[in-house]
From TrEMBL:
Alphabetical keyword list: ATP-binding, Cytoplasm, Nucleotide-binding, Nucleotidyltransferase, Transferase, tRNA processing
Gene3D superfamilies reported in the protein's UniProt record: DHBP synthase (3.90.870.10)
Protein name in UniProt: L-threonylcarbamoyladenylate synthase
Entry-linked InterPro entries: DHBP_synth_RibB-like_a/b_dom, Sua5-like_dom, TC-AMP_synthase_SUA5
UniProt main location, coarse: cytoplasm
Species this protein is from: Fermentimonas caenicola
NCBIfam families named among the record's database cross-references: L-threonylcarbamoyladenylate synthase
């Protein structure tokens, strides 16, 4: 695993994109502060850049670096959740401009999965995480279901967990409004 992390970080630092396991499904990732790398993911997925992607962090303490004002309820939700939870926050900052939604929001998930958490920790920046598929196609739940087009379109494919055949699901998604509203996007 450490060799995979080392190689993935080299690729991320050079502006490349990776295919890697997360706490949910396999993801396509890049340095979330690198606008050109983010554009490459949009191009690979054939996805309109008005559809924002989420980022992974390894530690909730880092939220304040990328969100202007973290609502108090977010800390409780992160502490109490028993499954992967993506929270959409208003007031994104210090991220690639083309990663931030037109309304200024960003989806962030604190990953608790061994590989992606350690990758984020050692990279010391947020990492984009978007499903490993062409936009509009079904999100693959296992490495073996990822298309050759995606595998060939990234700069590095992580070896760790490729043979894991566990059925996984995307995260729950909740949007927190500035006025204290909570909107469930996906359960």
């Amino acid at each position: 695993m450490q060799e995979d992390i080392k190689k993935a970080i080299e690729v991320l630092k050079s502006g490349g994109i990776i295919l890697y396991p997360t706490d949910t499904i396999w993801g396509i990732g890049c340095d979330a502060t690198n606008e050109e790398a983010v554009k490459r993911i949009y191009d690979l997925k054939q996805r309109d850049d008005s559809k924002s992607m989420l980022v992974l962090l390894d530690n909730p303490a880092k939220l304040q670096t990328y969100v202007q004002d973290v609502p108090e309820i977010a800390w409780d939700m992160i502490d109490l959740t028993d499954k992967p939870l993506t929270i959409i926050y208003d007031g994104a900052k210090n991220l690639a401009a083309n990663l931030i939604a037109p309304d200024g929001s960003i989806g962030i998930r604190i990953t608790d999965e061994l590989f992606s958490r350690e990758l984020c920790k050692q990279f010391r920046k947020p990492i984009v995480s978007t499903s490993a598929n062409i936009s509009g196609e079904v999100s693959p739940t296992k490495f073996s279901k990822i298309s050759a087009e995606i595998k060939n379109g990234v700069d590095y494919v992580v070896n760790y967990r490729r043979k894991d055949n566990s059925e996984v699901k995307p995260s729950s998604i909740i949007k927190l409004g500035r006025n204290g509203t909570i909107q469930v996007i996906r359960k």
